[in-house]
Design a protein that fits this description.
The complex is a heterodimer. Chain A is mainly β. Chain A contains no helices and eleven strands. In chain A, a hairpin with a 2-residue loop joins strand 5 and strand 6. Chain A is globular and about 45 Å long. In chain B, strands 2, 4, 5, 9, 10 and 11 form a six-stranded mixed β-sheet that branches. The chains are: A mainly beta, B mainly beta.
Amino acid sequence: DAGITQSPRHKVTETGTPVTLRCHQTENHRYMYWYRQDPGHGLRLIHYSYGVKDTDKGEVSDGYSVSRSKTEDFLLTLESATSSQTSVYFCAISESGGISKNIQYFGAGTRLSVL
Amino acid sequence: DQQVKQNSPSLSVQEGRISILNCDYTNSMFDYFLWYKKYPAEGPTFLISISSIKDKNEDGRFTVFLNKSAKHLSLHIVPSQPGDSAVYFCAASAQQAGTALIFGKGTTLSVSS
C-alpha cells in the first residue's frame, strides 16, 4: 500500500467552525490531491498540489483552501464549515514521471459530518 | 455535464461467471483510463489502466477494453469471486503528470456464491 495517512479519520463539527484535514505521505511523490465523495457524484477534485507551495483549484474548490509547506504534507481547510461540506474526503498522490505518472494512490479517507 | 458515465449503478453476478462493467466518456482529450475498486470505509484502490494507444490491457483476472471510436471502455472480471464485491469506479485523465482524474459515479458489483 502507498504510504498515505489521513487524519483524523472521523470528525464531527458544528456549522461555522474551522476544520483542517491532514494528508501525510511517505512516498516523496510530487503531486497531491484532495477529493470529496458524495452519493450520486463519484469523486470530485477539490484542490491539488504540484509541489511545495504550489497549488491549484479543482472542480469543487469553493469554501476550501489548501496548503503544502512540505513535500509530505497537504492540508485541506474548511474556513467556516457548512452542512453541504458533510462528505468523505480522500487524499491522493501521484508521481511526476514514469509509467505510473497517471496513477493516483488514495488514502483511507476522512468522514466529516457538519451539524 | 458528466464527462465520465457509468450508467449501471449495480450489477449482480454469480461466482465463477464473467462480470462486465461499462463506462462511457465524452471528452476527446482523455487519453488515459483507469479502474478503481472501493470497499466500504476504505479508499479507492487502483486496479488496472489503459492508454489510448491500446485497445486492451490484461492483468490476471482483469481485462480492460477500450473502444475509442465509441468512447467506451469496459472492465471484464473472469472468473468473478465473492471478494470482488465492491464499488468500481471508472476514471479518465490526460497523459500529462499531475492532471486530475475525472470519475464516474461508480457501479456496485455483487458476486454471490
